[in-house]
Specification:
globular; alpha/beta; 5 helices; three-stranded antiparallel beta sheet
């Protein structure tokens, strides 16, 4: 008998309300370890709310949600980049690397900055970055500790064509190299559609 894959994320009957307003209603899905879940839907369908729950930043009003990895092993990119504007790219990543106790963090920081095209501006304050450069740094932050679960909310936002291609290549490499589990929410699936092992289409509740 073939082995049954372990569920990295398992949701059953999820509902999320803010007061009387339902943002999500009766959402169920299973994402196996190593899989890629592509979450799509219009604005107001609850994509951000669902990803915040998967990342451990919100709890459902009803239903159950099981995430197999520890919250410290989650890499999360939200609509806001969650980096310090008055620090440089290197200072930001060094701070997060210390918090996550990343082994050989200087080498890891250098590799990510070079991969995402930020090496030449690594000592500039983030406040001087364009929105696209800041988004690239947010992606570096989320991937710095090589998390088992990566949760990305509209990660292509503000990226130019080169940045979007870099991100697509990075995600494809992680999937090909068994680099963990991925949950991705986007309006425009584009090149990441081929990576998805499952898809969840949300509608406004």
């Amino acid at each position: 008998m073939p082995a049954v894959a372990e569920a990295a994320v398992l949701a059953a009957g999820l509902e999320k309300r803010y007061g009387p307003r339902a943002v999500l209603r009766d959402i169920s899905f299973r994402l196996d370890a190593g899989g890629v879940l592509l979450v799509t839907g219009p604005n107001g369908a609850g994509k951000t709310t669902l990803l915040r729950m998967v990342a451990g930043l919100a709890v459902p009003t009803r239903g159950s949600l099981h995430v197999a990895v520890d919250r410290r092993d989650v890499g999360y990119v939200a609509h806001e980049p969650l980096v310090y504007l008055e620090l440089t790219a290197v200072e930001n990543l060094d701070l997060f690397g210390r918090l996550y106790r990343v082994d050989e963090r200087r080498e890891r920081i250098g590799m990510l900055l070079e991969r995402f095209g930020l090496w030449d501006v690594r000592h500039e304050r983030v406040s001087a970055y364009s929105r696209g450069m800041t988004q690239r740094l947010a992606l570096c932050r989320a991937l710095l500790h090589d998390p088992a679960l990566v949760v990305l909310d509209e990660p292509h936002s503000a990226l130019d064509d080169e940045g979007a291609a870099l991100l697509d290549d990075e995600l494809a490499a992680r999937v090909a190299g068994a680099g963990g589990t991925l949950v991705l929410a986007t309006h425009d699936p584009g090149g990441v559609t081929a990576l998805a092992t499952s898809r969840l289409e949300l509608e406004r509740a």
